[in-house]
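In the design runs reported in the main text, the only information available to the sequence generator was the tokenized backbone. The following block is the verbatim input for one such run; it is reproduced so that readers can re-run the procedure and compare outputs position by position.
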């Protein structure tokens, strides 16, 4: 039986970053083994989330595809804001 679920690519990327403790999309791309522009194109809407990237995210996070809709429905994007706010920025003048 096939499961049909509409997945928001940005939400899934945010969720994967939090789950894999990646501090940036670039770091997430390295963890997943994809080029950074692949994630950037999903973020900007130039391309849709592909099956191969979805499989890599599921593989790295250890989540089964059947559990994904439930996990994403409980995910709150504010968690990424907290993740990013922990970084210190250096100002050089």
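Verbatim output:
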């Amino acid at each position: 039986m096939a499961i049909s679920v509409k997945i928001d690519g940005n939400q899934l990327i945010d969720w994967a970053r939090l789950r894999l403790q990646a501090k940036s999309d670039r770091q997430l791309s390295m963890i997943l083994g994809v080029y950074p522009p692949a994630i950037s194109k999903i973020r900007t809407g130039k391309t849709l989330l592909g099956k191969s990237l979805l499989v890599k995210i599921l593989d790295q996070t250890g989540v089964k595809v059947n559990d994904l809709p439930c996990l994403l429905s409980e995910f709150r994007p504010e968690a990424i804001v907290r993740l990013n706010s922990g970084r210190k920025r250096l100002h050089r003048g």
